[in-house]
Design a protein that fits this description.
Layout (H helix, E strand, L loop, with lengths): L1 E2 L2 E2 H12 L1 H28 L3 H6 L3 E4 L3 E4 L4 E2 L8 E2 L17 E7 L1 H4 L10 H11 L7 E5 L7 H15 L4 E6 L1 H9 L9 H15 L1 H10 L3 H14 L13 H24 L3 E6 L11 H14 L4 H17 L5 E3 L19 H34 L3
Parallel strand pairs: 7-8, 7-9, 9-10, 10-11
Antiparallel strand pairs: 1-2, 3-4, 5-6
Helix pairs in contact: 5-14, 6-11, 7-11, 7-13, 8-9, 11-13
């Protein structure tokens, strides 16, 4: 029935809204929220090229007291903006296909995202996989070699030390441990005013999250909502960004040469402790000071553009790359007499088209690095295997 062109149902709805303003406001808020949420999901799909709910339901990494973050087993790591995704194996390592046999000579590699493989076209083109292939093809070695790659984005030497002291020592019996790093320690030390020795933004962030979850149920509720709601996720990111204790900013008064000296001291000390920890579990230890783009080793216009783009992104004003040069030159001089610590920061200096971005290597760069490491360690591995064979033969002889 209509009265004056308006249906009774419409009239009743208007009367309901007028009589219940609070409920009306709630309904409007819910409708607007659902509309924004729907628009957000659609926008996320077109921008990220993946479903928001699906992306939140897949957990790629987990917290560990040994290094803070570790990849989960058998997951695909989507690396948007990079040539390819990477896969973890049954141990949470980024490795080539193949089962870890008890008789295999086991090498564990630790480092950041450059070791992880960002910039590589597949798992088989990461530093660890290429190295494994070279060692297994060596006719002198003539034994199965397995390389487990526990590289993780942003990992510094203190995290590596924690991982080595934790799950690497507890879950595996490595014959050789390789640490491949340098740039992340430099980055944290000379990119943040608030830097402290053996501390970085991840520590603050993860500690805060864990403590919040322990203290109240609200954080648990928020974390569950973040799996489903783009609005909650966005608000949470904004709040964390505002309250972030570490911000990418540099003050020339704070980021001085004295600061750089402390960063170097921390970097080398952590390696010395890792060497000691390795010896405790009867594993050899090699540290490699990684190559990276600096102002002094730019070989092409493309590399120069990479550095300039980085500066624009972080409003660097030349401070970071000035101090990075100082860091690299000082480390080079301090480790040259350490037999177990190899400077390989120079090996890409005369090469072009080997960097994917300001620090990650492409397949060509990974190949050069792997060959360098292979030539450095192959004789030690050959001697180790021969020694193990002799010991096993002696054990089998009758007494």
């Amino acid at each position: 029935m209509t009265i004056g062109g308006m249906s009774l149902n419409s009239t009743n709805e208007l009367n309901f809204l007028e009589r219940n303003p609070k409920k009306s406001l709630l309904i409007i808020i819910v409708v607007i929220t659902l509309l924004i949420e729907m628009i957000g999901h659609v926008a996320y799909y077109f921008v990220k090229e993946e479903n928001f709910l699906k992306s939140r339901s897949v957990k790629l990494s987990e917290f560990t007291p040994y290094g803070m973050v570790r990849y989960k087993e058998n997951v695909v790591i989507p690396l948007k903006g990079y040539p390819s995704s990477l896969n973890t194996d049954e141990y949470g390592a980024i490795s080539s296909e193949g089962i870890l046999n008890k008789s295999a000579y086991l090498i564990v590699m630790l480092g950041g995202s450059t070791l992880e493989g960002r910039g590589a076209s597949s798992n088989d083109k990461t530093i660890s996989s290429i190295l494994e292939g070279l060692l297994n093809k060596d006719p002198r070695i003539n034994s199965q070699i397995k390389v487990l790659n526990f590289g993780n984005p942003g990992m510094d030497t203190y995290q590596e030390l924690s991982a080595l002291s934790g799950y690497v020592s507890q879950d595996f019996s490595p014959d050789l441990i390789i640490s491949f790093d340098g740039r992340n320690d430099a980055y944290y030390g000379i990119s943040f005013n608030e830097w402290k020795m053996n501390s970085q933004p991840y520590y603050e962030k993860i500690s805060r999250t864990i403590n919040q979850n322990l203290d109240n149920n609200l954080s648990v509720l928020i974390n569950n909502l973040k799996k489903h709601s783009i609005i909650v996720t966005s608000i949470d990111k904004i709040i964390h960004r505002i309250n972030e204790p570490f911000k990418h900013n540099v003050d020339t008064k704070l980021i001085n040469n004295n600061r750089v000296d402390k960063v170097i001291e921390s970097y080398i000390n952590n390696h010395e402790i890792m060497k000691y920890r390795s010896e405790q579990i009867d594993a050899k230890y090699y540290a490699f000071f990684q190559p990276t783009l600096t102002k002094d080793n730019v070989e092409s216009f493309a590399q120069s553009k990479i550095i300039n783009d980085w500066r624009k992104t972080y409003n660097d004003k030349n401070i970071y790359y000035d101090k990075l040069d100082i860091f690299y030159k000082a480390v080079q001089s301090k480790i040259e007499k350490l037999e177990w610590f190899t400077d390989m920061s120079f090996i890409l200096n005369n090469e072009t088209d080997i960097y994917f971005d300001s620090c990650h290597y492409n397949d060509k760069g990974n190949g050069i690095i792997s060959n360098f490491i292979y030539n450095k360690i192959k004789n030690d591995i050959y001697n180790d295997i021969k020694l193990i064979e002799r010991e096993n033969n002696n054990k089998s002889l009758p007494t």
